[in-house]
What does this fold into?
Amino acid sequence: MTTTVTENPVFTLTPKAAEMVKTIMKNEGKESAGLRVSVMPGGCSGYTYGLDFADASEAEDIVVEQHGVKVFINEDIEPLISGAKLDFVESLQGAGFVLDNPNATSHCGCGKSFM
It folds into this structure.
């Protein structure tokens, strides 16, 4: 059963991240898709994040819609990313998505995995 969350979302998408997601979706011809956030075992700290596009939610998904973007999160990973925020950051070192997760107790040096 898909659960849609509008108040106190388990995951926050900043306006800048939402705009970049919509731009990428448009460039890839996936304007009607949603953003799937996943957590997979791996990396030097234990888990890695995944971001991908999905055409629709799955039965076990929590759906968060913010700034015109649907975000799909499998309910099994909700405890690992509850309260997390996805932003898009531009700096002298480059630009990219940054996921701030209050549940992560440690990060690897490269910033690609967490525990």
Remarks:
- Helices lie at 15-27, 78-81.
- Residues 1 and 59 are 5 Å apart (CA to CA).
- Residues 3-106 form a domain with the Hypothetical Protein Aq_1857; Chain: A; fold (CATH 2.60.300.12).
- The two ends are 28 Å apart (CA to CA).
